[in-house]
Write a structure and sequence with these properties.
binds pentane-1,5-diamine, alpha/beta, 3-stranded parallel β-sheet, globular, 340 residues
């Protein structure tokens, strides 16, 4: 009897790692502060699939690592304009809809958008806006738009996203232009504006811009809405303002690179995060605008009333792929920052 028991224990020790390996792995490359560890752990617990998770803080970082990584990633999380670019370059694998029954939970307004008109390559993860957080205990005058933020009197009191496309777009908006009006002539007009702005900024941070606001290092921020929503949850003195000149509404997706080696696991993860109760966990931790309407039903009235997570609609624009001008924008901002 004892020897049978011992044999069984040995067998388990020998077989378990093989089974685990057979369950496979998933290389996830996503935005920082966006995918809760709890969700990743829940997926592994249920499926046995080990998730290797790496993060980035801009679409441009994602792109350069994707190109350099040569097949290292199975699942990525690009924003709308980057999905469009990746499709144009044939860098995404078409999705197998049969493996994604939970797509039914996503609101129709978030499906088949212009960056992926037939929804062949992407599923929406979260959406949000880029707007202004004001510490109203410190800033008494009304802040309505970018021009109110970038004032000499606010020098060294600002945190803004470390994102070149965002920065240039804000300047274009103050000129009455859209995020796609990126001709050389328009960029030349935006240049001195961005040049003056970068001098006023205390902190550039795309990972966790809330930190500088919460610890009182700065009084105003231009940040992702989920970061603003966390500030509001911490203290109601932090108000969220969508800039009057126009603001970016991003739609961040999950996509599978064409070179991915674990496409089945990637589909499994996509379907997993679209479960209402899993998607709710994402909203609990990172309060962006959840496109999953079944999950929204599980959110509290307070979560849905957070003005940064669910803002009253305003002048919003999603970015489009701008081709070669993206490199010009990168250079423009990099030059201005290093000239400081
Ligand atoms: C999460 C960043 C939000 C993504 N930290 C902006 N597209």
């Amino acid at each position: 009897m004892k020897s049978i028991k011992t044999a069984l224990i040995f067998l388990t020790i020998l077989v378990a790692p093989v089974l685990l390996r057979a369950a496979g792995e998933l290389n996830l490359f996503g935005w920082s502060e966006y995918v809760p560890q709890e969700v990743i752990d829940g997926f592994t617990k249920e499926t046995g699939i080990r998730v290797n998770f790496e993060t980035y803080a801009s679409n441009e970082e994602l792109l350069s690592k994707l190109v350099a990584g040569g097949g290292a990633y199975d699942l990525i999380q690009p924003s709308e304009y980057t999905v469009e670019l990746l499709i144009r370059r044939n860098m995404l694998a078409p999705l197998d809809r049969a493996k994604l029954p939970n797509l039914k939970n996503i609101g129709p307004d978030f499906l088949n958008l212009p960056y992926d008109p037939s929804g062949k390559y992407s599923i929406p993860y979260m959406t949000g806006t880029v707007g202004i957080v004001v510490n109203t205990e410190k800033v008494k005058e009304p802040i309505k738009g970018y021009l109110d933020v970038f004032q000499a009197k606010h020098a060294d009191r600002l945190v803004v996203l470390n994102d070149n496309r965002e920065l240039v777009t804000w300047a274009l908006h103050t000129l009455g232009l859209t995020s796609s009006d990126v001709s050389a002539a328009n960029l030349a007009k935006a240049r001195p504006i961005v040049g003056a702005w970068v001098k006023l900024v205390k902190v550039f941070d795309s990972d966790s811009p809330k930190t500088a606001l919460l610890n009182g290092d700065v009084d105003i921020g231009i940040v992702w809405s989920g970061e603003a929503a966390i500030c509001w949850n911490e203290n109601k003195k932090f108000h969220y303002v969508l800039p009057v000149e126009g603001a970016h509404m991003f739609v961040d997706s999950l996509c599978i690179p064409a070179t991915a080696k674990n496409k089945a696991a990637a589909h499994q993860f996509m379907n997993y995060i679209m479960r209402p109760e899993v998607s709710k966990l994402i909203s609990d931790k990172f309060p962006y605008t959840n496109p999953n309407l079944a999950a929204r039903k599980l959110l509290s009235a307070e979560q849905l009333a957070n003005p940064a997570s669910y803002p009253a609609s305003s002048k919003l624009e999603t970015f489009r792929d701008i081709g070669a001008a993206a490199a010009d924008i990168d250079k423009l901002v990099t030059d201005l920052k290093s000239a400081q």
